[in-house]
Amino acid sequence: MDVISTASEQGVTERRVDFPGSRGTVPGIVWTPEDAAGPRPVVLLGHGGTQHKRTPNLLALARRLVRHLGYAAVAIDAPYHGERVPPDERGEDPAARRARLGVDEWRRRIFGASEHMVADWRRTLDAVQTLDEVGAWGPVGYWGVSMGTRFGVPLLAAEPRATAAVLGLGGVGPEPEAEAFRAAARGITIPLLFVLQWDDELVERERGVALYTAFGSAEKTMHVNPGPHVGIPPHEREEFERFFERHLGRQPAAAAAGPA
Amino acid sequence: MDVISTASEQGVTERRVDFPGSRGTVPGIVWTPEDAAGPRPVVLLGHGGTQHKRTPNLLALARRLVRHLGYAAVAIDAPYHGERVPPDERGEDPAARRARLGVDEWRRRIFGASEHMVADWRRTLDAVQTLDEVGAWGPVGYWGVSMGTRFGVPLLAAEPRATAAVLGLGGVGPEPEAEAFRAAARGITIPLLFVLQWDDELVERERGVALYTAFGSAEKTMHVNPGPHVGIPPHEREEFERFFERHLGRQPAAAAAGPA
Hints:
Two copies of one chain form a homodimer.
Chain A: E1 2-9, E2 12-21, E3 24-33, E4 42-46, H1 56-69, E5 72-76, H2 94-101, H3 103-112, H4 114-128, E6 140-145, H5 147-158, E7 162-168, H6 179-187, E8 192-197, H7 205-214, E9 220-225, H8 235-248
Parallel strand pairs in A: 4-5, 4-6, 6-7, 7-8, 8-9
Antiparallel strand pairs in A: 1-2, 2-3, 3-5
C-alpha cells in the first residue's frame, strides 16, 4: 500500500493511497480521525456508476463516520471509474460516456467487472487492516448503493469480515442470468439497511422489493422514500450513521487502547 | 375534561382524565413533563386492536416523548376497548373475545367505529389544547399502528392540526368498500413514517405497500422489517422519536416561555 499524499482538515486525515489490487494497482482513499491511534471499526464505501472514490456523497459520509463515530473509512475506484477510466475515454463527462456506450454495453461492463471488484475490495481490506489506526480486530462495515450494491452483494456473500452493511437502489429480476446475484443475496446473513427510491427510473419497484426479500439476513430493514434514483432524502444519512453505530459500535474517545 | 387522578414518576406526570367525547365521556390519559409550564408539541397515541390507552407499548412511547423531547402525549380508549368494553363483555380476555366474536364481526365493529373514533380524537385534541402545558399553538403529531392506523388515516385526512404522523401495520385492498379508506389516505399530505412487518400474518405485503403508495404526502418513508404483526424491532422506537423530533421540534429545556 503506497501512500501518495496526506492531508488533514477539521479532524479528518485523508490519505490518497494505491492499494495492491487483484490485477495491478487500485487507487483509493483512507479516512481516519486526525489523532487516531489503535484499532477501530472501518467502513468500505462503494461508489455508484459514473462516480468515483471521492464523489461528494462518499466524501461527506466518510467525514461523518470519522468525526461522529471515530471510525476509519475507505473508498476505491471501481473498474472503468475515476482513475481507472480507460485511457481513450478520459476527459469525457461520465454521464455522456455512459450515454454514448449505451445502457446494455454499460451494464455488460459493470456486471462483467463484479468478480474483479470483489477481489479488489478484499485485497483493499487486507491492506487497510495492516494500518495501526485500523487493525484486524475491528468490525467491518460496507456501504454502497446502486453500483455499490451491484458489487456489494457478491462482496458480502464472499467476505466474512463484513458484519453490517447499507445497500440500496438495486434490484433483482426473474431472468435466469440474475440467479447468481439472487443466490449471493440469499447468502448474506449480516444485518442490513436497504434503501429504495419509490419512483426510481433505473430500478423497478418490484425488482428492488424482490432483492430486499431475497436477502438471507434475519435483521434487515428497508427504507423506502418517494423520488428518483438520485434523491435519497438527507435524513437517511443520519440513519446510515446510526445503523453503523448500532452494529459496529462507537469508537471510544480514547482510541489509543486496543482490544484487551 | 375531568381529571380523575394524577401521579408523577421519574419526571413524567400522568393524568387519568375523562374527555368529553362525541357520544359521552371518553376515558383518556395525558402525559406531560413533571415541571411542565407553557405550550409544547403533543402527540396523540392510537392503540391497537384488543389493546387500550395504557397498553405497555403506548406507555413506553409516551414516557419517551415526555422525557427525551419534552412533549405532551395523549391516549384514549377506542370504542369496544379498555374502559369502553361493553358491560356484558367485561372481564373476558381481549384476544379470546376477538376469537369468540370472529374476525368478520370484529372488523365490522372496528370499521363501523371509525367515524365515532375520529370525532372522539378531535374533541380530545380540543380539550387537551386548553391545558396550559399543551396550548393551542404547538405542533400536533399522531402515532398509531394496526387499528391505530385504521382510525388514524381518516383522522389525519380530516384534522388539519396534525402535522406529522407515524402509521403502520395496515393496508388497503382493491375491494370497492376500501375506496373511502384509500381516498382518505390520498388526502393525507403531511410527513409520514409508515412501518410494515414483512411477514405480517394479518396484513398482506401487497396491501401494506399499496397503502404506503396511496398516501398523498411528498415526504413519506416506509420502514420494512421481517417478522410477524406484533414484532416491530426495538430500534424502530428510536426512529419514531427522531421522526417526531425532526418534524415537531424539540421542546426547549426552559419550557416556561410560550412562543414569542
